[in-house]
């Protein structure tokens, strides 16, 4: 596969940065730091090298941002109990239904575990139970996943909202799955993941998880990446 100089430079910086661990914000900080060529025997050559490194770092930012934004997340929702059953279960504890539809149970977890590798499949599995309101006729249930930056934990990198009961518009118990493969080239680190349920547009208390992305390295500690020439 033929790779031009910019791709080589970009991939080299991405590989080095990934092995040391960084986030998009960290690369930006490194770019702004510049370089001092005052003590160099060849200032022009030194300045040119710094320009090339800066260009590579800028390209690395674009690469990391793009692969995360382009990541495909699949979603599947399946109903495990109908509205009548969840109403019966609810009334065993409460005398009457709540005025408005309500999320009475919601949990989510990362599978196969919190430590994941680039290129491997990750699944966020959730279980939720929604009861109807005393006067509600139609209920819209949606589930949202948001993946945050490994350094700036309040910065959203990827967010997706999917319908849960699109066909029935009724309450019930559901088992759902978000599935995705972390792209090769995504910076290593711990990424917070937040999922939440929205019922008729009202968000419930979110479920917080995290995944620790680690790299596939060989015995010489060389990061193996796939170069795609676009």
Name the descriptors.
230 residues; alpha+beta; Immunoglobulin-like; 2 domains; disordered C terminus
Structure description:
With 230 residues, this protein is of the alpha+beta class. The protein folds into two domains: 5-69; 74-214, Immunoglobulin-like, CATH 2.60.40.3880. Helix content is 27%, strand content 34%. It is built from four helices and ten strands, in the order αααβαβββββββββ. Strands 3, 5, 6, 8, 9 and 10 form a six-stranded mixed beta sheet that branches. Strands 1-7-4-2 form a four-stranded antiparallel beta sheet. Helix 1 (5-20) crosses helix 3 and helix 2 (24-33) runs antiparallel to helix 3 (43-69). The longest helix has 27 residues, at 43-69. It is elongated, with a radius of gyration of 24 Å. The protein starts with a helix and ends in a 16-residue tail after the last strand.
Topology:
Elements: H1 5-20, H2 24-33, H3 43-69, E1 74-81, H4 83-91, E2 102-111, E3 115-117, E4 121-131, E5 141-148, E6 156-163, E7 172-181, E8 189-199, E9 202-203, E10 207-214
Parallel strand pairs: 3-10
Antiparallel strand pairs: 1-7, 2-4, 4-7, 5-6, 5-8, 8-9, 8-10
Helix pairs in contact: 1-3, 2-3
